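Aim 2, interim progress. The first record below pairs a target sequence with its structure tokens.
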Amino acid sequence: MSEEVTAILVADVGGTYARLAWARPGDGRVPRILDYRRYVCAEHADLATILRRYRRELVDSGIAAPDVAVVAIAGVLDGDCLLNTNLPWPVSVEQTCADAGLRTLRLVNDFQALAHAIGHADPAAMRCLTGPPLHVARWPALVLGPGTGLGAALRLDSVDHPVLSSEVGHAALAAGTELEMDIVRLLAARHGHVDNERILSGPGLVNLHRCLGELRGVAAPWSTPAEILDAAASGEALAVEGVQVFCGWLGSLAGDLAITFGARTVYLAGGITAHLAQWLDDGRFLRRYLDKGALSPALRRVPVWCVEHGQLGVIGAAAWHGDGMGER
């Protein structure tokens, strides 16, 4: 496919925003992202509407709109349909392709795309949480992050199969403190299965805030992640506790996954990671990340980097294509 394609439409679609651009096929080089734009998913009837709008806007700007698209999107394909609990609409590959006027449409898991992109990430967009201050890419690398959901993928030292994708957001949430156990009990009584993203995501931060209010016997007035983060920044006690618990729990999961996969580097991405900067730095994340018994000394040699999400998803969609994944 890459021999016939001179330009591709690339997109990064999450539960809240769709980020679109077009790019030249990269063939292993750093993809050049052009005409980057962002759309609110809930303001559009379906994915095809967003893709069609973007292509129309390109034409209106005098640019030939690509008819080959690679879309990095949260979820996993089951035949023609995407399984996802966080998008505002269902997605059929065949129907979306036809309705958007595309010749070819490929969907790739959003964190799989991020893992393809991580080798192309700008070091200036990275911030070290622990480890040597000079960034050196070492594989396998865990790419993990909370947004509307929770995603994770593993970047491998392999040409043929460079990325292992996952649905870790739907794996069971592990409690590591008495407070976390109390929170899991509350959630289990309401939902049965309590998965990681029930807490470790934007909506999960709201769930956590409400559980803490119930356990503390106080009002939990905030209903969005942004409100909770703003309240925490102003020192509101319940909001501060919620963000602190969130970061500690995220650190514990990051450590679990790092030792599970033998990761040599951990990258934190995701839609809300950048908003947690001061809380990730306060020590709770790192303490829980390293609190793995006999393997704690090994984890001290595994650096953790916060990487700005920004255009990384669309870069990843282009890199996925450039790595030849669409031809397999």
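The second target in this work package is listed in the same format:
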Amino acid sequence: MPEEIEKSDEKVGSVTGSRYEQIVAELLKVVEAQTKGQFTIGDRALEIEPIREYGGQEKSEGLFTVKESLFRLAEDIGLSYKTLSNLRWTAAKWPKDRRQEGVSWTIHRILGRIEDEEERFAAVLTPPQNTSRWTPDEAKRRVGWQVAKPVTPQEKVSAIHSLARDEEVAAAVAGDFLRRPTVIAQVKEEDRVRAVEELTRDDKVAAAVAPEFLRRPAVVSQVAQADKVRVVEEFTRDDGVAAEVTTGLLRRPDVAFRAMADDTARHQVNDAQLERGRQAREHFEQTSPVAPAIRGIDRSVEFLDLVTACHAFVAASGRVVPGLRDRQLSDDERTIIHENVARVRATLDWIETAVDTGKVDVDGELARLLQGE
């Protein structure tokens, strides 16, 4: 008994619990009377214009169409046409012997959306297990409508979607959500990918984001090889960038070896070496202290090319060899260098023989060395 007194004295708004119960009992009677009145209006509207079967002639045999008749009735009794239409529709869904006493007209209207009649008539008699009577939100849950007071996560999500139909509102909400790491952590991976794709459609945004991704080894390691190649190709369209990257890559023996296995790449490198030799020859003629003496000699193109090649070799060696200071080469690297030095020695011997004797024939062993066999 003391617990009941304490409960009745608990305030609801500005009234005590006991007064609140009195108000509820009073208003239930008012709602019941309103429900009867609303069904009465709906029944009379049905009497004037019965519901036609789907696809039937929605027009009376008299002077007025269905809408015109109902519009006239709505104006004559002081209701809107939409309100009268709802009353008529609800009355048609609930024959008099199926209307449940104590259940408001609003509940009948919502449950009227259940298409199957037997299911609809059974539903109004069986409120949800967690409540003693039907409420508008429970009825909306039954027919799959959005509720006024979301409770479950899915209902809250539906409410957010409804409020965010306006694109400006959605953009503002999305920005707020993306600032919350705990929210992002719960987003599915495919949805994150889709969001990133959409957010980076703008080229400026994509350009700002890409370097950040490329600085993260864990991210780069998960990129497919074909995509990595495509990225490098795009980044090296600029000749200056391509030259810097290529130089760095060719300093890696394994990379250089695999690159030279490509015939086109190897030919391009050979062409580049010839072009560099030509440029070195021009530079030699312009800058070498012995160039005036050489110009005084009746020389051939072959003579100039040979001098230029020697000069280019010496210059390149002078530039590269100091870089080996304090560097320990692997066995494979040393083997490759020794093989190439042997080819160089053989070539130098061949040059001396050709210069001294004019004989340019090569024996089999020298030919194999020159061909890299």
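The CA atoms of residues 106 and 202 lie 49 Å apart. This observation will shape the mutagenesis plan for the next reporting period.
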